[in-house]
Amino acid sequence: MEKYLADAVKRNVLPITSRCNVRCLFCSHTGNPLEVNTVSFPHLPFAKINEFLPFLDPGKKIVLGESATIINEGEPLFHPDFKKILLKIRELFPKTPLSITTNGLLLTREMVDFLTSLGEVELVISVNALTPAKRKLIFGFYSDIYPNLYYLSGKIPFTASFVFMPHVVGYEEYVLSIKKLMQLGVEAVRVFLPGFTEKNKQLINAPRDLEKLSQKLFAEFLEERTPVIIEPKRLTDFRAEVLGVTPGGMAYFLKKKDIILKINGQPPFSRMEAHKLLNTPGEKLLEIFRQGELLTFNFSLKPGQKAGAVFYRDIEKERLLGIISKVEKALAKSPLILTSYLATTLIKKGLQKLGANYLVLPVKSRFFGGNIGCAGLLTVEDYLWAVTKVLKVRKPDYLLLPGISFDDRGRDLTGRSYLEIEDYFKIKTEIF
Ligand code: SF4
């Protein structure tokens, strides 16, 4: 367990418990095939957590309650020493921002006051529904977190998340809940289309038109500036289209669906680059495209201020250049880049933008099955299947796989190393 904790801490994620005070209908912890090496542990003793604290990076946000490795994350506020842990973090890292993901059930007024006193805390609250009777359908019991959210509004910045289950709680519940949250000043709303594996397909029972309904939900809030982010999203281009602006953001003049064409005369390579350029302090001249019109705006950002514009996360130019450099170093004549269905087009187009025409193919998640489409859940077994299929029509001389499928030791979620693929096909294999 220690090595998984160390892996998480390297990413500035501090796991403190796998225990949770609820059992959500869609909790991913129940959907894993038996072969998956997930790690669950009870509340970690304070002394053990204390050993890992000095390894956190004070220059980066410290995250609690998010999965970063194969450790199953529980509810951090459920840990009996939660306050003691946070006080220790503050003692060691007085100014480092803290992000805490919680289901909100234990966010009492007293807890809100405590978190406020720490400073530099932001919350990611898995709301899922606000109406108590609807929440019962997800959590199995009545609960009302609205009074606590009302109390924390204006004291601690928070983002709300929903797993989109209109077939369980009704579509209108999302509209009502998001409206109420926007009145409370929520920073952004994230709506996740439920991911399901073959094993929990029946449990989730997602209807076919879920994606269409999620777009309808996005459209309901088109005139509101607060970002509504529907995920996962299969991106097919690098257009820096704005999803919204967080309250207090200096780029408040931007509207949803605006496209950033140039920042100080420079077209951003990607959404990520647009985000970075917008948040760099200094004077800015923006050229944007809004509903058929070209518009320009000036704005200035001081250190510590945020532009607030939110975009989907695409891919950085540096990462694509990294792929090209690996292929060139390997002197590959017919490289094959494998990735998830969600990222294939983006990586292919990004490489083309940089003049590299490589074969990029999607890998289906056979291991998890269901609708799993992200590279983080692809396994060696999936890659073996994909390459076997490709070999029927062509013979690549180099394979490049996304590093996100593997841990620091190059092992997938089932503990198999990507080097097995190289051994099996006798084709040089690396990760990016
Ligand atoms: S709050 Fe998170 S960890 Fe707890 S049951 Fe729900 S999804 Fe699982």
TrEMBL record:
Q: Which residues form the Radical SAM core domain?
A: 6-239
What is the protein name given in its UniProt record? Radical SAM core domain-containing protein
Q: Does the keyword 4Fe-4S apply?
A: yes
The record's PROSITE patterns line, in alphabetical order, gives: MOAA_NIFB_PQQE, RADICAL_SAM
Q: Which InterPro entries match?
A: Aldolase_TIM, MoaA_NifB_PqqE_Fe-S-bd_CS, PDZ_sf, Radical_SAM_PqqE_MftC-like, rSAM, rSAM_sf
Query: What highest taxon heads this organism's lineage?
Result: Bacteria
The prosthetic group or cofactor this protein requires is: [4Fe-4S] cluster
Kindly indicate whether the keyword Manganese belongs to this entry.
no
